[in-house]
Amino acid sequence: MITVDLGYERTVLYFGGFVSGGSLMEYFLQQLINGITLGSIYGLIAIGYTMVYGIIGMINFAHGDIFMVSSFIALIVITALGLTVSTGLGLTILALILVLVTSMVIASVFGWTTERLAYRPLRGSFRLAPLITAIGISIVLQNYIQITQGARVKPLQPLIENGYTLMTRADGFTVQLSNMQILIITVTIILMTIFSLIIAKTSLGRAQRACEQDRKMASLLGINVDRTISMTFVMGAALAAVAGLMFLLYYGVIDFFIGFVAGVKAFTAAVLGGIGSLPGAMLGGLVIGLIETFWSAYFSIEYKDVAAFSMLAIVLIFLPQGLLGKPEVEKV
Amino acid sequence: MTHTVNDPVLTVEHLNMRFGGLLAVDDLSFDVDRRDITALIGPNGAGKTTVFNCITGFYKPTEGRITARHEDVASFLLERMDDFKIPKIAKVARTFQNIRLFGGMTVLENLMVGQHNPLMIASNYTFGGIFGLSGYKRAEKEAVELAKYWMEQTGLTARADDAAGDLPYGDQRKLEIARAMCTKPKLLCLDEPAAGLNPRESEELNKLLLFIRKERDTGVLLIEHDMNVVMGISDHIIVLDYGKKIADGTPEEIRNDPSVIAAYLGVADEEVEEVEHEIEEGASS
């Protein structure tokens, strides 16, 4: 069956039948694995929010839809390549790298274009103006996909199956680590490391951090601020494309509206971790993913979003700057 | 007699800057020689910083022409350039009255940001850098060398890995100059570099500026209130009052110019002689 609800159901079904097993260590471990997987996807999207906020102080509401567009690009490329589950593992991985690179490049073009068309002309305008155009871009992208790809959910047969059974309990409950989950977590770790290194070590990263602190001064040192901002959008979109592919492979169904829910969650993750902080976005993504998963597993799936957003409210009451954010310093 | 400029690195012609009804800079023309330390002085509100802002692209002048010239006869009309191209192509760098370092970044990183453009080209806009191409590694090494050179000249070597925001005030000032020098400028514009420095630090600053003029082939244009610095190291002084140039010459000439004394003491022109007389009396007693 195809689950229309894009929440957590499918994964739960995957391990279905065992859920009633109880609340012991094995069950906890299984949920931990699921939570980290989901958190990785949120973290990848959250980085795009946090980087853009860091450099121009704007929430890019269209970012979730870039993620949605990229998952459609991935689906199209996968279909064009004719990938199925019977394709050998080696070939599948090679093809998925191709899919990943293609959707990263095309998503980057989307990211660059939205910045160029919708945000740059409004730079220096009042603060809310680019925020409103961001919402506009979000609607445009959703409708664009809805018209060109149809409003119905698009399924993708699982490409990567099997996995490892880590533990088996006496009553038959097994702790599974699927190949898909290994793939998602590994790719996330690799890409986050690469992007953190770019920010920390390269001249582009230094320019981004310089623009974040003092755009005018950066430009007086010969840095092309507009180009640096464009590159930030490109990097954020590329990471969203990674998340898009992972989401597609993991859940197997996408539609034109997934960008909204995932975007709101990732934005929450970015705020929770401390907006503007890169490690914060990763941590925030993990925390949101884990809360959702554990809430679904131990309490109720219906209220998992309530749990995640309540957590955000509680953290922000006691730590307004988020988990890893710097306290706001008034600039003179 | 006025100070003659033989080899101008910067020529300002008929510069006007108007803010609504206020004429902040009024038909100002002057030259800055490549081998000089030129000081721009004047009472508060005379329009000195406005001139700097026009030179470095913060403001687009209402009227006038600002030309930067390199030794190889290349010249650049600064008022028509995008602001980031002024340091990148015309090679004019500046510092601010209030320090504008990247406080969260280390001293070394601040100096590396100043070398952004050569590094971006060497790294093929980051893509080559990611794949570790040798050209990028060499460029990065050279950039670190240049940063180390300026840390040595400013005595900041030991603090290379400290956050710039944690440095004491005097060191922050020096770091700002070092960072500006890392862009390899032909003209260095300093807005009150000695503000807030104690006498010893201000002495070190003088030495640094003389070193820059002598060794680095860089013209220096500075705004300064500290007369110790101005008279001690400048070769050429331009005095502004209410946006107009009222004097232009060597320190010796400026020191004795009655209109300058009047502008600083705020007296009417007819009282100038009286004031001059008083000063001379004060000096002789």
Task: Describe the overall structure.
- The complex is a heterodimer of chains A (332) and B (285).
- Helices cover 69% and strands 5% of the residues of chain A.
- Chain A contains 12 helices and 4 strands.
- Chain B has 12 helices and 10 strands.
- In chain B, a hairpin with a 2-residue loop joins strand 1 (8-19) and strand 2 (22-33).
- Chain B is globular and about 70 Å long.
- The chains are: A mainly alpha (332), B alpha/beta (285).
- The interface between A and B is medium-sized, with 23 and 34 residues.
Write the layout of secondary structure elements.
The complex is a heterodimer of chains A (332) and B (285).
Chain A: H1 9-14, H2 25-56, H3 63-81, H4 89-119, H5 128-149, E1 154-155, E2 163-168, E3 174-178, H6 179-201, H7 203-213, H8 215-220, H9 225-251, E4 253-254, H10 258-273, H11 278-298, H12 304-318
Antiparallel strand pairs in A: 1-4, 2-3
Chain B: E1 8-19, E2 22-33, E3 37-41, H1 48-55, E4 63-69, E5 75-77, H2 85-88, E6 92-94, H3 107-113, H4 116-122, H5 127-130, H6 134-154, H7 169-182, E7 187-191, H8 199-215, E8 219-223, H9 227-233, E9 236-241, E10 244-249, H10 251-255, H11 258-265, H12 272-284
Parallel strand pairs in B: 3-8, 3-9, 6-7, 7-8
Antiparallel strand pairs in B: 1-2, 1-4, 4-5, 9-10
What do we call the CATH homologous superfamily of the largest domain in chain B?
A: P-loop containing nucleotide triphosphate hydrolases
Strand content of chain A: under 5%
Number of H- or I-type helical stretches of chain B: 12
What is the CATH T-level topology of the largest domain in chain B?
Rossmann fold
What CATH architecture label of the largest domain in chain B applies? 3-Layer(aba) Sandwich
- Overall pLDDT of chain A, averaged? 86
| Tally of separate domains of chain A | 1
How many DSSP E strands of chain B? 10
Task: Report the span from N to C terminus of chain B.
Answer: 30 Å
Runs of chain A in which pLDDT lies below 50 for 5 or more consecutive residues are 1-21
Work out the helix count of chain A: 12
Order of helices and strands of chain B: EEEHEEHEHHHHHEHEHEEHHH
Q: Give me the oligomer status.
A: heterodimer
Number of strands of chain A: 4
Based on the structure given, which CATH architecture of chain A is correct? Orthogonal Bundle
Radius of gyration of chain B: 20 Å
